[in-house]
Amino acid sequence: MPERYDNLFLSDTVSRVNYTNPQQNGPRFKTPNRDAGQHGANIRRQLDVAWQRYQDEVSNRQAVAVPTREGMYLEFESAPGFDLKIKSLEDLRAGVRLLNVRTITLGEHTVQRATIFVPYDKRAHFLNKTVAYMESGKNKSLLASIEEVRQAVLESFWQGDAAWMPTAEVPVWCEIWLSSDKPEVLVAFQEVSAAMGIQLKDESIYFPERTVILAHVYRNHLLELVQRSPYIAEFRRAPETARFFVEQSNRGQREWVDDLLARLQVLTDSQVSVCVLDTGVNNGHTLLEPLMEDDDRHAFKPEWGTHDDAGHGTEMAGIAAYGDLQEAVTANTPIQITHKLESVKILPPVGDNNPELYGAITSQGISKAEIQRPEYQRILCMAVTTDAYSVNDGRPDSWSGAIDEIASGYLDDKQRLFFVSAGNVRDREDYLNYPASNISCRVESPGQAWNAVTVGAYTAKDTITEPDLQNTQQVAPRGGLSPFSTTSCVWEQNKWPIKPEILLEGGNLIRDKLGCFTCDDLSVLTTYYRPAERLFTCFGQTSAATAQAAWMAAQLQAAYPSAWPETVRGLMIHSADWTFQMRQQFLPANPSKGEYHRLLRTCGYGVPDLAKARWCAQNSVNLIIQGSLQPYDRDERGRYVTKDMHIHQLPWPREVLLALGAQTVRMRVTLSYFIEPSPGEVGWKDRYRYASCALRFDVNNVNEDMDNFNRRLNAAARDESEFDNDSGSDRWLIGKNTRHRGSVHSDIWEGTAAELATSNLIGIYPAIGWWRERHGLGRWNKEIRYSLIVSLSTEAETVDLYTPIVNMIRTRVPIEITR
C-alpha cells in the first residue's frame, strides 16, 4: 500500500500547520541488513527455479496442445516486519506489471507479498537487476527488501479470506480483476472463458489499468485462468447479497452479530456524533447499544416516545453506525468506531406531520440533542422528504430554508453539517422508464437546501442469488444511477444549486414481464428495529445512501477534529467522481460543458471516496485553508460596496512540475461555504436574492503574475451579473457558469505539468447577495467563513509532490489582498 499522510491544513502562521513532516528527501525506505553477494545469489537461485518450473509447465501443456500464456507470474515476499520496494518491482516499459499487493500475518510479524507478471521475452529482467546488486550494490533497496521470490500460485491472486475461495464441487460468483482497462484485453479474456465454459456477467467495470468482471467459477477454473491468461490481477469472492443474512434464522444472525461485537472497538470518549432525525431508534439492538445512550434519544413531542415504531430510523442508524454493515459483518479484522449515535424522533407514531411544520420540527428536534450534548461535533442526518404540496422545482420552501438557517448558524453562530436525502422515484410505473424517469422525477423537499449535502443513490448491486429470480433482469447497470434516485434536471438550471451533490449505494430493482420489484439481493444490509424477532433487514433507496454519507462524514470529522463543517462537506464533494457507467449513461463522446452540467444535475459530483478525502499520498496532495472574509462594506459616501478579496499563494512544487514537462497532472479546487437564507417567495433576484452572499474562486492563468491576476479578480468582483463571464473556462472541466451555482463549487483542471507550474494563485472574491442589497437588515458588515480545498495529483506513483510541498509550507503562507 502506498504511504499515506494526513491532509495539509494551511494557516497564517507556520506553528499552526497540521501535517506529517517527512524527511528532506522523502521518507527513508528501510531494508534488512544484507550481504549483497550472499543474498543476491540466493535470490538468483530462486528466480532460476521459478523460471525452470514455468518452462516445464509450458512443455507439458504444449505436449497435450493446451493453450498457455506467454510469460510468468512471480510472487515476491518481503522480510518479516519490512515492506517491499513496490514501485521498483514494476516496469511498464518492459511490460513488467504489478498485479496486487497483500499484507500477510505470519506469527508475530507481517510480510508483504506482491504478484508480478513478467513477459517471457523479459525473463532476464529481475535476473539482471540481481546481478547488478551482487556486483556493485545497485538496486539495493529493491533486492534487499526481498526475502523470497517464487512462481505465483492461485493464492497469490486471491483477495480476502482463503475460506471464501470456490471449491472443486460448488461454483460461486467471483470478481475477476484484469490488469488492463483496454477493451481488447476484456475481449481476449471473454474468449478464454468461453473456451473453458465459464459463465460471465455481460457487464464489466473499468478502472485505470483494471477491468472487473463477474464469473461463475469452480476452483479449477481459477487455476486454469492463471495458466491461460496473462492479464489476471486479482480474484475476489463476489459479495454475498443482503438476502444471505436476512434469510438466516435469528440464531444464525446472532452468530454473525456476536462475531462482529467481538471485533468491535468503540472510542468511548469520542466527541463526534451522527444524529438521525427520523422515526426514532431502538438502541436495544446489540449492534447499536454500544454507540447510543438512552439519554441521546429524543422526540419532538414527549408523548410520541423515543422508540422506533416503524423501523426506518433503526435501519438508518445501522448504516450511520457501521457504513457498509455487510462488509463489517463479513470482515475478519477489528472494526473501530470513532463516533456515537443520537436520535431525534420527528415523525409521529400514527399519521403524518403537516408539511408546513417540518422546518420547525426539525429545528426544535436538533435543539433537544444540542442541549443534551452541547460538546458534540454533530453530523445531522435526515432521510425524510415530501412531495406533498411542494412544487419541487428548486425553489426554497420553509423546510429547506430552515435547514439552511440551521446549517449557517444564523441564530447562534454555530455552523452545522447536514445531510438530507434527495427523495425517491415513487411510482412503480416510473421504474419501467429507467433512467428517463430519474430525469423527470425531481429532488423532493427539503433536498433543495443550499447548505445541506443532498444525497442521491447509485448502485453497485447486480448479483441475484435467489433461484426463483434467475429469469429476471436488473433495472440499473452496475455502477449506474439507482432506479430510486431523483434529480434536478428539470429545475430552472441557471438559478438553483446542483442537486444531489453526491451519490452512495441505494440498491437496485429487478424487472420481469409483470413489472419492477425490490429484491433482497439488490438491497443494503442494516439493523432491524425488532431485534427479538431478527437482527438484520434489507434497506435501500436514498435513505440508505444518506445514512452512509453521514457515516463517512463522521470518519472525516473524527480524523480532523479542527475541521469545520464546511470543510468536511467540501472534502466529501471534492473526493467524488463519476463511475465509468455514469459517464456511459449520461455523457456523449466529446461532451460539452452543457452536457457536463446535465450530468451534474443527474449524478451530482459522483461517488465520494473516503480514502481520497482522508489522506494524501506522495503523488496526490490535499491542501486545505479555512478562512473568513468580509464581503461588503459601506464607503465614505454611504454606498454599500464589495470589500474583501483573498488571494492564496499556495506552496507549489514548481521545480518538480517543470521537470515533469508534458506529463499530465490534475488540479481540483473546491470552495465550500454556508449562506444565510432568504427563502421568501420574492423572485430571488435583484435585491431579493436567496443567498446572503455568494463567493467565487479563480486560479491564475499560465504565467499570469500576482498583479495581473489581482486586476482580473477585481473586474470579476465588480461584475453585477448573476454569473461570471466564462472566459478562460476552457481550462476547466465544468466551467465557471456551472460550478458557481449554490454554495459549494468544485472544478477540475487537467493538463501538462509545465502548464500548471505557475498556477499557484487562487483568488476568493464575493458576488452580490442580500447582505449588501438589503442593507437595512444590518448584515452588510458580517464576515463569512469558507473552506478552500486544493488537490494536486498525478497518476505516476513514482512522482513525489508531497515532500516539496511540505518543505515549502514553513515559508509560504496565504497572502490576503483587501480592496
TrEMBL record:
<dbReference type="InterPro" id="IPR050131">
    <property type="entry name" value="Peptidase_S8_subtilisin-like"/>
</dbReference>
<keyword id="KW-0645">Protease</keyword>
<keyword id="KW-0720">Serine protease</keyword>
<dbReference type="GO" id="GO:0004252">
    <property type="term" value="F:serine-type endopeptidase activity"/>
</dbReference>
<dbReference type="Pfam" id="PF00082">
    <property type="entry name" value="Peptidase_S8"/>
</dbReference>
<dbReference type="GO" id="GO:0006508">
    <property type="term" value="P:proteolysis"/>
</dbReference>
<comment type="similarity">
    <text>Belongs to the peptidase S8 family.</text>
</comment>
<dbReference type="InterPro" id="IPR034074">
    <property type="entry name" value="Y4bN_pept_dom"/>
</dbReference>
<dbReference type="InterPro" id="IPR015500">
    <property type="entry name" value="Peptidase_S8_subtilisin-rel"/>
</dbReference>
<dbReference type="InterPro" id="IPR000209">
    <property type="entry name" value="Peptidase_S8/S53_dom"/>
</dbReference>
<feature type="region of interest" description="Disordered">
    <location>
        <begin position="19"/>
        <end position="38"/>
    </location>
</feature>
<feature type="domain" description="Peptidase S8/S53">
    <location>
        <begin position="270"/>
        <end position="606"/>
    </location>
</feature>
<dbReference type="InterPro" id="IPR036852">
    <property type="entry name" value="Peptidase_S8/S53_dom_sf"/>
</dbReference>
<keyword id="KW-0378">Hydrolase</keyword>
<protein>
    <recommendedName>
        <fullName>Peptidase S8/S53 domain-containing protein</fullName>
    </recommendedName>
</protein>
